[in-house]
Amino acid sequence: MTINESRFLSDLHKLREFGASGVGKGVVRPAYSEADIAARKWLAQKMADAGLAPHFDPVGNLFGLAPGRSLLLGSHSDSQPEGGWLDGALGVVAALEVARSVKQPISVVSFQDEEGRFGVTTGSAVWSGGLPLDKADSLTDASGITFAEARSSMSDLSDDFVDPARFEGFIELHIEQGPTLDAQGDQIGVVTDIVGIRDVVITFDGQQNHAGTTPMHLRRDAFQAVSQFNAMINNRFKNMVTPQTVWTIGRVDLHPNASSIVPGRARFSMQWRDGDANRLERMEEIIREAAKEVAESVGLGLSFGTMLGLEPVSMDIKLRSALQMGAETVAPERWQKIPSGALHDATNVARLMPVAMLFVPSIAGISHDFSEDTAESDLVAGLRVLEHAVLSLNA
What we know:
Structural class: alpha+beta
Mean pLDDT: 96
């Protein structure tokens, strides 16, 4: 049997129908939503049709298991609240196509909650042992729903955790989610390493008060504290970060969130990423010191949520070399080595086995948006490189 490009693309478009947004090719398929569970059931049937044994673990990770020891391929199939059709899905469907097209034993996985409805790559974090299940169960989403409550919606499907010892290694095909490949006209990126990440929720507690009668110098305004904090860390990071270092306040929740009330509480996310673990630690020190200084200067309460994160990870040389040979065969002079600034399940899986990653271009570098897209010729090229790598590893 050989790779069937038409079948691969057809399955990829079919998966997009689960949670289709109605806007372009976008999808709304958050972890444990009806669309997500329906998509996983469909994938499980596709795995069974390919001769794999479908297996849902206690947190909703879906494996298609080959008999005996095998190479593991895949990614995730949940989406951002407003997501693109390829983020994660590409790696799962490509893995399925390779598994049913080559003679070697290949297992497939679609990890759950990679997009962080509850944490940071929650499903693979639990499976890899990086996040204890009882700790994961206490995590909540933006609506206050716990991870335990959410995963209970799949309890009728779940079985034990899969033993990672049955896998020889893990390869994840993914869209780049950045502009480098597209801007340079390259078709393939072989990942060298994945940055580390830290993610924490910070809360300033001030005094809720009347917006018209409370003098500015007497206010304990929680939102003004967020503003001061943001300016402070931007200034203090200047002399210790690199051009690749990034940090983001991505979500701010104000209470009571009314136009005529001085905010009494501000709860916000603070996330930072870098390829150097020591720099990540130094950034955390600056963040905590800055938050403390701001809170004390305004007379606010300060609290930090659970620190979530993953360490930087280098790709396995053997697996990476196989991908590089495949890239040279499929896309000669149109591939490059590239770091990943985005987080992926491969980071967690690296605790258990050798891992490697492969990128295809994102048009205009856009991802986590309904307009996310990749040329079908590039999607097929990524599939072909994955196939070549698998065949060479088992030669």
